[in-house]
Input
Amino acid sequence: MPTQIKNIIFDLGGVLLDVDYHKPIEAFEKLGATGFEKVFTQASQARFMSQFERGEIAPAEFRKEVRRFLPEGVTDYQIDEAWNSILGTLPEDRIVLLKMLKNKGYRLFLLSNTNSIHIKAFQRYLQDSYGPSALERIFEKVYFSSRIGMRKPSQKVFDFVLRENNLQPEETFFIDDSEQHIEGAKKTGIHTHWLREPETVLDVFKDFPSLH
Output
């Protein structure tokens, strides 16, 4: 990591929160879905899913679109449960890492392409695991795409975060597990790290001198 870094922007899913992009496909197939794998992958997704992530359509409209792939009779609850199956856990050692970085004086931000159904499920899990306002106690700002009307990899979302917080790109480090998001961030001059398995976010900082 460059030595002049003062600000760190984290992705959520695949960086801090464990996710499995295959589980929703499997869950929807169990509900009788056909062709769902063609509209949802880590690298790309259907237009209505991107709209949902930008907050342009409501959960009811999202479920209506999903039902085009499903047999009749599937409930809202079943759709939400299948959709939320992508979400895993946020291991405690990653919380410890974030607290260490914050205590060292780094300004920490979260920038995630996350829709309202996932936000609700994740916040419920987070409160049960780490107490209320766990993210807000660590991050200076939390940005969910569905709440700001922009999503990665658009350059404008990175420009927005930089501008709103008076961050200099050469002093800012962004970590994400999707290559297209990394490319979007690079256009602003932000330093980046593309996290790829089996590497974890802990590995990114394990040799960072100020943490030892």
